[in-house]
Write a structure and sequence with these properties.
Keywords: Membrane, Transmembrane, Transmembrane helix. The protein is mainly α. Helix content is about 75%, strand content about 0%. It has seven helices and no strands.
Length: about 180
């Protein structure tokens, strides 16, 4: 089980730390650059990083049969990958919004991106792991992280929506 969590954390941290670098390079007076403001090469690199993250998670997911409550087949590995990858991206996005809203400087954000970027993915993976006690601990730690993040933000829901609009720019009615 340790290698599963370590592999998940490593994949999430390397990929999402690098995504953070791409989104904050040349950001100007904004917290990060909108996807529409990225060059074609940078957008391709960002999408490739996320794709590599999901491939790495799938590789981990294929080897989770003994440590999760999911069955031992390819469909289970796909489900595990989708849940861990999707949930991890949502968690990472929330954590990024917290750091922007709380006014963390860019260097701190990038360090957190590389060191802690895999935490949301790992917490979701732990929710699938045996024994059930591990699931409960992961769910509890997730709740604590969400509450801690929300307390650092002035208006959590509005801030998260604002950052989504900034990220996706004109596609969602942002600037």
């Amino acid at each position: 089980m340790k290698w599963q969590f370590g592999g998940t954390w490593l994949a999430g941290s390397v990929a999402m730390g690098t995504v953070a670098v791409l989104l904050t390079a040349g950001r100007g007076d904004r917290p990060f650059r909108a996807l529409s403001g990225l060059s074609g090469l940078m957008l391709f690199a960002l999408l490739a990083l996320v794709a590599v993250l999901f491939v790495a998670l799938f590789a981990v997911g294929l080897r989770t049969e003994d440590v999760t409550w999911l069955p031992n087949d390819t469909r289970a590995a796909i489900l595990w990958t989708a849940a861990v990858g999707g949930g991890g991206l949502i968690g990472w996005g929330f954590a990024a919004a917290v750091t922007f809203d709380a006014g963390f400087d860019l260097a701190t954000q990038l360090i957190l991106g590389y060191l802690g970027g895999g935490l949301p993915f790992t917490l979701i993976a732990a929710m699938f792991a045996k024994p059930v006690r591990t699931n409960a601990i992961a769910a509890g730690l997730t709740a604590i992280a969400l509450l801690a993040g929300a307390t650092l933000m002035d208006r959590p829901l509005q801030s998260c929506i604002r950052y989504l609009l900034l990220l996706f720019g004109p596609a969602l009615g942002g600037q």
